[in-house]
């Protein structure tokens, strides 16, 4: 049955790559997913209709949880290399989820603030400290959720985050997809992604008022050759975050740094857990 499913969705995966290039959307690559992820220590479950995938240490007050938020389109298994990493499994409780509108969590797409509500619920379900990791459109989600945390210990890692509203604009292909019959032939993931892109700019303008509320450490990793999410987003975050963020700029890197710079990101996650909350740069 799984093999049949792969055959059925293969054309959509190729179309997804085309959409990412044509629309310059914040799409994640498609790492291979093993037939049996439980063999890697990864277990799936649902919380309030949101599909979660967990690995590593149990949820307890003594253990730090890393929560991964994917871009658009995308799914929890964009993070499978991290979920399956034995070093991270030994040190952390790891959690990735299909955001509302994507994959198993399913349609319809949820606006940015609704997505932040979902992530906040996941944060509050964890007993210990939390590190949030957001790539591309997942970037504003983790920042918005961090801004709401008054008692929970949260550290935040933004990977090529789409946060600056001035850098967001819809392109002709987005309008074609949304308002033409083409949309009837697209996968739910692509429709959800297009809807998110259409609504993103005004929601990022609202998010600007929340960013100064963040008082815990934020680390930003940005590729200077990123054509999908330009480096101007880093300057925007610097202007709006009261606590100066730690910034790692990669001169020769593009948008897909969570996978191309895996060892760097992994090292930063391991360092974040021991980094004092008062440390700023």
Assembly annotation: single chain
What is the number of independent domains? Answer: 1
CATH level-four homologous superfamily name: Alpha/Beta hydrolase fold, catalytic domain
Helix content: 25-40%
Overall, the morphology is globular
Number of helices: 10
How would you write the strand order of the largest sheet?
1-2-4-3-5-6-7-8
Quick one: CATH class?
Alpha Beta
Going by helix content, strand content and strand pairing, the class is alpha/beta
Level-2 CATH architecture: 3-Layer(aba) Sandwich
Which residues sit in consecutive blocks of at least 5 with pLDDT less than 50? 1-18, 21-26
Give an overview of the whole structure.
Helix 8 links the parallel strand 7 and strand 8. The protein has an eight-stranded mixed β-sheet with strand order 1-2-4-3-5-6-7-8, sandwiched between helices. It is globular, with a radius of gyration of 18 Å. The N terminus is likely disordered. It has one domain: Alpha/Beta hydrolase fold, catalytic domain (Rossmann fold). It contains ten helices and eight strands. The longest helix is centred in the first third of the chain and has 22 residues. The protein is an alpha/beta fold and 281 residues long. Helix 4 packs across helix 5 and helix 6 crosses helix 7.
């Amino acid at each position: 049955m799984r093999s049949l499913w792969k055959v059925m969705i293969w054309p959509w995966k190729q179309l997804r790559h085309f959409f990412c290039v044509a629309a310059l959307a914040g799409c994640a690559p498609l790492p291979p997913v093993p037939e049996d992820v439980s063999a890697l220590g990864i277990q799936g479950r649902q919380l309030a209709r949101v599909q979660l995938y967990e690995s590593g240490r149990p949820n307890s007050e003594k253990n730090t949880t890393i929560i991964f938020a994917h871009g658009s389109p995308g799914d929890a298994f964009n993070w499978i290399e991290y979920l399956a990493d034995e070093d991270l499994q030994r040190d952390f409780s790891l959690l990735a989820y299909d955001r509302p509108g994507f994959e198993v969590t399913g349609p319809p797409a949820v606006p940015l603030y609704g997505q932040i509500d979902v992530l906040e619920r996941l944060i509050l379900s964890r007993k210990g400290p939390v590190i949030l990791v957001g790539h591309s459109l997942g970037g504003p989600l983790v920042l918005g959720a961090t801004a709401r945390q008054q008692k929970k210990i949260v550290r935040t890692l933004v990977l090529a985050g789409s946060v600056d509203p001035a850098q967001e604009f819809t392109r002709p292909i987005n309008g074609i997809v949304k308002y033409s019959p083409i949309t009837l032939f697209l996968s739910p993931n692509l429709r959800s992604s297009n809807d998110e892109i259409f609504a993103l700019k005004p929601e990022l303008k609202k998010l600007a008022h929340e960013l100064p509320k963040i008082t815990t450490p934020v680390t930003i990793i940005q590729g200077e050759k990123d054509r999908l999410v330009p480096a101007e987003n880093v300057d925007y975050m610097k202007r709006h975050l009261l606590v100066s963020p730690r910034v790692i700029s990669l001169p020769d890197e593009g948008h897909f740094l969570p996978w191309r710079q895996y060892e760097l990101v992994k090292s930063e996650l391991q360092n974040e857990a021991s980094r004092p909350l008062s440390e700023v740069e």
